[in-house]
Amino acid sequence: MNELVLKPIKGKKKFDEFFKTARKFYLTDAAVFVTYRQQNEKDKKTLEYAVIVRKKNARKAVVRNRIKRLLRECLRQLAKDDGMSEKLAQFDKIMIVWANAPAHPMLIRLVQVCQTVRKLIDKASAGVNG
């Protein structure tokens, strides 16, 4: 199976356009904004992504940067996983916004982040079907 290629969303115009059309799904720890692929783009293997941790939620840059690194790594791992890769392939663009942060950067782990992201992706992929 061809692997899903992750590409960051860059540029204010792309972000503004994305926010106009994106569907939103929420959990207590994070939110996900997604746009779904059109029928004629189903064979496309590129997923544009963005990760956001607000300064309001995580005051220290060290904590924000760690959460962003963990979110990106989690997306990479999920893109390699066959089951989740199929769910991610439904999306044209995805943005994950992390809502809360610990006081110290080592208090958050990849396992916790991946568990939350997996739930969000399941919720968003069910949203296209439901």
Q: What is the secondary structure topology, with strand pairs?
A:
Blueprint: E1 5-8, H1 12-21, E2 23-26, E3 30-36, E4 46-53, H2 61-80, H3 82-88, E5 91-98, H4 110-129
Parallel strand pairs: 1-4, 4-5
Antiparallel strand pairs: 2-3, 3-5
List keywords for this structure.
single chain; 130 residues; alpha/beta; Ribosomal Protein S5, domain 2; 4 helices
Description:
The protein has 130 residues and is an alpha/beta fold. The chain has one domain (5-119): Ribosomal Protein S5, domain 2 (2-Layer Sandwich). 44% of the residues lie in helices and 24% in strands. It has helices spanning 12-21, 61-80, 82-88, 110-129, and strands at 5-8, 23-26, 30-36, 46-53, 91-98. Strands 1-4-5-3-2 form a five-stranded mixed beta sheet, sandwiched between helices. Strand 2 (23-26) and strand 3 (30-36) form a beta hairpin. Helix 2 (61-80) packs across helix 4 (110-129). It starts with a strand and ends with a helix.
* pLDDT averaged over residues: 91
* SSE pattern: EHEEEHHEH
DSSP strand content? 15-25%
Q: Label the structural class.
A: alpha/beta
Q: Enumerate the spans where pLDDT stays under 50 for 5 or more consecutive residues.
A: none
Q: Terminal Cα separation, in Å?
A: 27 Å
Strand order of the largest sheet: 1-4-5-3-2
Total domains = 1
Give a short account of the largest sheet: 5 strands, mixed
Briefly note the CATH topology name: Ribosomal Protein S5, domain 2
Q: Return the CATH class.
A: Alpha Beta
The radius of gyration over CA amounts to 14 Å
Count of helical stretches? 4
What's the count of strands?
A: 5
Query: Share of helix among residues?
Result: 40-55%
Shape: globular
CATH architectural name: 2-Layer Sandwich
